[in-house]
Amino acid sequence: MNARRTLAFLLRQETKTNTYKFALVRALNDLALGYCALRVPEPYIAIPLRKIAELWLSYYWAFCDPQKPVLQGPVTVRDGVVRQDISFRRSLTDLRHLVESHGLLGSDPAGGYLVHQMVQVDARHTVPRLALLYQQVLKDLMVAVKKPIEYSGVGESHSLFLKPEKLRGLQQVTPFPESHPTDTCVPVPAEIWSELQENSILIGALTLQEWAKFVGEMRQEPCTTGDAFNLLMVTPSERTSLSYERNQLRVLMLEGLLDRCPWSRKPLKPDDFDVDHLIPMSILPINEWWNLLPADPHFNRHVKRDRMVNVQDQEVVQRRLQHLFEAYWEGENVSRQVEQDALKRFGLTRWDTGRLAAEVTHMSLQVADFRQAERFRVLV
């Protein structure tokens, strides 16, 4: 298989009735980048449909504005019944309306990237039906995800992807981190996975270009190609919805466990610090604890910004991250959350600050390479 040609053909030339195939490639591309530390020795990697569905929710949120929906395919009438352009439009629109009607996230088209975290932290169920409707949307999305999987590939066989099955019934696959034997997964060829990692920025750009073009050329949709592209490019603000994390970091500072910025080495002040993302939100929107760290505001806003660490600083960055994770370990709430995030992202089944620091450093350098990110130097 020539993975690059296969993906290019899928994006540019394969028949499409809506934008599902674009969304599938984009999700796989984001997962391949977000889990670039994962080793794939088997011919296939088993991706849980739920993981793809969660990303689809983020992508399609912007197109399911209750006041101004943007079509993702033609609306047809079959047997006297109006068929929606995307099968999950109604439930996702209802979810967005529920969130925005409670004054959460405003009308931010990037809200889909934050609603996952919102559901997790809403333990007191302050928004009625939020968790229930969120789960229904994911179920609807998982059904929709199967369509491009089934119909992707050249010829009548559409054999690019194998049929999704329960993980326990699949053979010659590398399981995804934190996947369960009962999870329904799609086996993705290792060649495709590798190509997505090595040419992430090119494939990502082509996917967005073709997706926006498809929407812009639809006769039923007044949205232009440029407008569609802008909606596809939205990312959440780095400081949105991090008040809980900020408070946890402030507590660690007051307890004397965090005292210096990992980047500038300047003293941290509990009432004046930034919550920085090691991997910037503009590159990968990840709010997991291993990706969050307290930073000197001036250095973060004027030097680090949306840049990534330099490979020349690998050893010092890994050492400082280990020190940071050791401080996180001392915080009861933080340690539990970091442990959960480390299992989910890296498959680490026990707390090991040295190994976690090594995995995080390695991943950040790989992501920077794959996305050709601008770098910065830490101060020593």
Structural class: alpha/beta
Order of helices and strands: HHEHEEHHHEEEHHHHEEHEHHHE
How many DSSP helices? 14
Strand percent estimate:
5-15%
Instruction: Give the overall average pLDDT.
Output: 90
Shape: globular
* Sheet with most strands: 4 strands, mixed
Overall number of structural domains: 2
Question: Strands of the biggest beta sheet: in what spatial order?
Answer: 4-6-1-5
Low-confidence stretches: none
Euclidean distance between termini CA atoms: 47 Å
* CA gyration radius, whole angstroms: 21 Å
The tally of beta strands, per DSSP, is 10
As a percent range, the share of helical residues equals 40-55%
Structural notes for this entry:
It comes from Deinococcus cellulosilyticus (strain DSM 18568 / NBRC 106333 / KACC 11606 / 5516J-15). The chain is an alpha/beta fold. It has 2 domains: 3-232, no CATH class; 243-376, no CATH class. The protein has helices spanning 3-12, 20-34, 49-61, 89-101, 115-121, 130-150, 190-198, 200-216, 225-232, 243-254, 297-304, 314-330, 332-346, 353-370, and strands at 44-48, 76-78, 81-83, 165-166, 173-175, 184-189, 274-277, 292-295, 308-309, 375-376. A 4-stranded mixed beta sheet has the order 4-6-1-5. Strands 2-3 form a two-stranded antiparallel sheet. Strands 7-8 form a two-stranded antiparallel sheet. β2 (76-78) and β3 form a beta hairpin. α4 packs antiparallel against α6 (130-150) and α8 (200-216) crosses α9. The longest helix has 21 residues, at 130-150. The chain is globular, with a radius of gyration of 21 Å. It starts with a helix and ends with a strand.
